[in-house]
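## retry 2 of 3
previous attempt timed out at serialization; input unchanged, resubmitting
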Amino acid sequence: MPEFTALEWLVLAIAACAVGLSKSGIPAFGPIPTALFAAVLPARASTGAVLGLLLVGDLIAVRMYHAHADWGVLRQLVPSVVVGVLLGVVVLWYADDTAVRRIIGAILVLLVVLRLGLIGRQRRSGSEARPIARGWGHVFGPLGGFTTMIANAAGPVMSLYFVASRLPVQAVLGTAAWFFLVVNAFKVPFSVGLGLMTTESLLLNLVLVPALVVGALVGWRIARRISATWFERIVLVLTFASGVYLLVV
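## retry succeeded, writing output
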C-alpha cells in the first residue's frame, strides 16, 4: 500500500465519495474522481485505481436501479462503445496525458453547447423539448467508449445522451448503471495489460469502499427527490465544468 499524507487520504476519500454520488444519483460527477486521483497518484496509475472503485459503484447502482433500465438504448449503444474503448486503448498506448485531457475537455464542452442550442431552438419555436434521434447513439457510443477508456470520464457524455433522449430520471440511472457495469468490466483486461490496474490499486480501493458507500447513499436520496428539469440542468452544468477543467489543467 502506498503511503499518503492525511490531506492526500482526505482527497482520495472525497474522490471515492464522488464515485458513489455519480453512480447512484448524479452521473455527471463522473470526471471528478479521476481529477482528484490524478492529483495524488501519477496520471496512468490513477486511471486503474479509479476503475476498481467504479466497478464497485456499478454493482451498487445496478442493485439500486436494475429495474429501470431502457434495454433498447443499451442494445443500440454497446456495439459502438466497443469501438470507442478499443480506440482508447490505442491512444493510451501512444498519446501523452495532456493531449488526451484536451481532447476529452473539448468534446464535453462541444456536447453541452450543441444540447443548449437544440433546447434554445425548441423554446423559440414554442415546442416542447423532444428526444434526440436514436441515431445519435452511434456518435455518443464511440465517444463514451473512448472517454471511459482514456480517463474514466464517460459519465457526462453518456448522461447527456440519456437525458437528451428524454428518459425519466430513474431510467437514466438504471440505463447508466447497466451500461457502465458492462463497459467497465470489458475494460479490465486492457487496464491490467497496460499495467494500470494492479494489486496495490485494488488494496487502495478496498480501503476507500466505505467512503464510496456513503456517497452512494447520499446520491440515492437526491435522485428520489430531484425533478427531471433540475436533473438535466445539473448534468449540463457539471458536464460543462468538467470539460473546462480538463481543457485548462
